Amino acid sequence: MENRAVENGVCSTESVNVSSDVWSCKNSDSSSADHLVIMVHGILGSNTDWKFGAEQFVRTLPDKVFVHCSEKNMFRLTLDGVDVMGDRLAEEVLEVIQRKPNLQKISFVAHSVGGLVARYAIGRLYRPPKKENVEDSTDGTSIDDLKATIGGLEPMNFITVATPHLGSRGNKQVPFLFGVTAFEQAANLLIHWIFKRTGRHLFLNDDDEGKPPLLKRMIEDYGDCFFMSALRIFKRRVAYSNVCYDHIVGWRTSSIRRNIELPKWEDYINKEYPHIVYEECCKACDTEQSELVSTDDDSFDKLEEELVTGLSRVSWEKVDASFHTCRQRFAAHSVIQVKDQSMHIEGADVVQHMIDHFLL
Description:
- The chain has one domain (2-356).
- Helix content is 31%, strand content 20%.
- The protein contains twelve helices and 14 strands.
- Strands 1-2-3-5-4-6-9-12-14-13 form a ten-stranded mixed β-sheet, with helices on both faces.
- The radius of gyration is 20 Å and the shape is globular.
- This is DUF676 domain-containing protein.
- Pfam families: DUF676.
């Protein structure tokens, strides 16, 4: 049974004590909001993980956004694999679009493994242009028909937060393993016992009928999934990362960087967003950069390099955060999402940074 909750001008649907949709209670605002924001949680998570973020988006942009917190991959369902979760998410997005016919634009905000699930889902939701070019169009064809879409909507922001884009296969990509080779090798052998199929995808040791690892397939258009075409048509792609104290997802994998590209952040001061310690805009790079990587670098990994190079073919805004001065710094992986508002309110400025830079 579904109930409606109202709090400080923000409405949400509640079902079995969890909320899925969040929007402004003001009728004029809700009727004009044409931008769908899909929020995706991480492994073993639920749609309440983004409760604070969803409400902040609606309070700040009440007449612009309608927020849906994904609910089809909660708890143990997150162990079914990135592809299975991606298919579920794609179906869920289409269901939301179908019941909200006024929607025109779409953005994704995803935490941890949810970022990989969202990348898979948009590959499924990609719709190519109906016409190859304007010259081929007839007088009755609208300009919208000439653009590629995500589920029929204009793609705007694709935002990931502490997402293991390069996987978690050692080389200090999972910080709590301390970079100890023996620990990383043991984790690689045992991961499927703990995190099932999703664990195999994260450690890139999946072998589906002789196909390359899923994360490698996702750096190109593969089969009927247009992974990179979909990612490319978003107006913005943003990767938020923890530079330290994230014991689950390493800085390199979440920021899509090589070890030699990690910036010096200690002297960076941002008075408006105290926990943002570095920002940069990285342009798309179509050239192979493997020759720039020193094989003497102990973090070098050929497969990881392929993922970095593939994902760098589109531009990214990279935003680095640090909670090293916070009481809850050892929970940085969830603090950056403000997963628990009462405990992790320190991350509120990072969520506000997302909203203030959100393209509408």
